[in-house]
Amino acid sequence: MSAVHEQRQPNPVTKANFFSKWFFIWTREILVKGLQRNLDPSDLYETEPSLESTQVSSFLLGHWEQELKRSKPNVLRMIFKAYGWSFVPASIVYSIMAIAVHTTQPLMLGGLVSFFSESTGKITKHSAYLYAMGVVLCSLISGLFFHPFMKYLFRVGSRVRLACAGLVYRKFLRVSVAADNSGVSGYAISLMATDLPTFNESFYCFHELWRGPLEGVVFVYIIYQLIGWPAVVGLGTIVAFIPLQAWAARAIARYKRSSADVGDERVKLMNEIIAAMQLIKMYAWEKSFAKLIGKVRKEEMDSIRGSTYIYAGLQCTGMISKLSLFLSLVTYVFTGDIVTSQKVFIVASYYDHLNDSLLHSWPLAINMWVETFVVANRVKDFLFQHENPADGGVHNFKEAEDNPEHGNFFGRTHKPKAEVKSITVHKLSASWDQKKQEKRHRHIEDVSFQAQDQQFVGIVGTVGAGKSTLLQVILGELDIISGSVEVNGVLSYAPQEPWLLRGSLRDNILFTEPYDEQRYLEVLRVCHLDRDVEQLPLGDSTRVGEGGASLSGGQKARVSLARAVYRKADIYLLDDPLSAVDSHVSKMLLDRCLNEFLSKKIRILVTHRVQLLRHVDHLV
């Protein structure tokens, strides 16, 4: 799972000097490799420390916590507070330099053209050399600063995207299971895969928001000085298309919002269909669900197609500069003035820049930042999803272990470092939906039990009685309506539906825990996996495939159990891990694993096998 990562070399940019960074010389090594052979993942460098997701997300998290103290939190305002100091001044400096270069170069070109013109001999040879040097110098300055600046803006956009992805990921780990059932998983995937990359592009063109109008004012003034009021004709032609650009930007943003909303609905629907695929196949409902997916996909494609058509139509604006130049020069001739080659070259250059600034770069920047506003609002909506009020979930329990203090949140107390290990549930009532607290909506009602150190507790009941729900409450994944839950000790959990990584068998058992060979081999034995490992082609290094596709249902259940058992915990929550294995294996797991290996731990077992209840100390 981490083999490729271990082979990566340190990023050379971290040791590159200013000259190497400015001219991208540090990329020479990997470019030479790519020239000699095909690159593979091991050729990639380590991520720069400044772009590590942990670092950037922690940095933005602090700003988000400050933003939450305001009456109306705003994601975009938070981003500008966090990163504005790093790119706004640079954008202003670059914009001023770009305007100066774009203003000077046509004048230098006009002077050079005047030297070769037959109608005038006012330009000396020495001046012509200076004009030529000016043209070259302007091109050199533009080339020297453009790419490093674009790279800098792209890095800022990458930081923002990674930081927001970290916030989304952190929130997703804290979101309640009830909220996840309403499509939060698809929402999070859509955000990180489709929406957040918008930050890369929007920061890439941030400086165009003010450079375009400012550059337009400067160029129009110079054109007016050259040809007088006929410049108004050409400018009017360009300005006439600006409302069209504004309408197009709003229309594209509207289509983007519609596409994002329908995309979320499609992802949610696909998740539900994939989860119920076996049932759909058994009832031959493929065509009905295909029509349902096709309808949603058609709505999404209509939105994408609409925005694409508008964007394609905007590409025709490249002819506007030629039309503006033609109308201005025709009007200039009709006024009785003489058109010189110098004026034609200068005016044509400025109109090209005007077309790029006012009809291409500026509208593009506006469009991108309209999309960025939409994305920022979607991120904010996700960050305000209902989450567990307690220190629940694996992620938060890990935080609690690192924190010497413990907290009491809405009736749930967790003390991972308590000397006496126990679980106490007192008159507990819980619901999947905190908004529906009536008794008819409660999934657990007035449940009480206590598990002391080394006790084996069995939880039984009919289907839908709330056995798994009770474990979810203990884990902190469900809202408590009344009563209390006190957990003294570190938890480990084996879910009812095994969840496996697309990695090796060992990766799925260790699950980021440090490798202890003696404990690992013992866990394989007590979970009856030692024989399976011997039969696998690569032993425990065999990759199990997506969701454990290469394993049987019983093997998946035992791998999930082994993962929970391998973790050194005080309390083991086991949600019916014996249901997918036959009676012979079930007895071996009960004897070796639960009654022998975990005999000194608290074990809470959910099961529907009544014959196993004689082994438990307490029954719920």
Summarize the helices and strands and which ones pair or pack.
Layout: H1 3-7, H2 18-22, H3 28-36, H4 53-67, H5 75-116, H6 125-174, H7 177-195, H8 198-204, H9 208-227, H10 230-275, H11 277-282, H12 286-314, H13 320-334, H14 341-383, H15 393-402, E1 407-409, E2 412-415, E3 422-431, E4 444-451, E5 456-459, H16 467-475, E6 479-488, E7 491-494, H17 505-510, H18 517-526, H19 530-535, H20 553-566, E8 571-575, H21 583-597, E9 602-606, E10 618-619
Parallel strand pairs: 2-6, 5-9, 5-10, 7-8, 8-9
Antiparallel strand pairs: 1-2, 3-4, 3-6
Folded structure, characterized:
The protein is α/β, with parallel strands linked by helices and 620 residues long. The protein folds into three domains: 3-43, no CATH class; 49-383, ABC transporter transmembrane region fold, CATH 1.20.1560; 389-620, P-loop containing nucleotide triphosphate hydrolases (Rossmann fold, 3-Layer(aba) Sandwich), CATH 3.40.50.300. Helix content is 61%, strand content 9%. The protein is built from 21 helices and ten strands. It has helices spanning 3-7, 18-22, 28-36, 53-67, 75-116, 125-174, 177-195, 198-204, 208-227, 230-275, 277-282, 286-314, 320-334, 341-383, 393-402, 467-475, 505-510, 517-526, 530-535, 553-566, 583-597; strands spanning 407-409, 412-415, 422-431, 444-451, 456-459, 479-488, 491-494, 571-575, 602-606, 618-619. It has a five-stranded mixed sheet with strand order 1-2-6-3-4, covered by helices on one side. It has a five-stranded parallel sheet with strand order 7-8-9-5-10, sandwiched between helices. Helix 21 links the parallel strand 8 (571-575) and strand 9. The longest helix has 50 residues, at 125-174. It is elongated, with a radius of gyration of 33 Å. Residues 1-5 and 390-410 have low confidence and may be disordered.
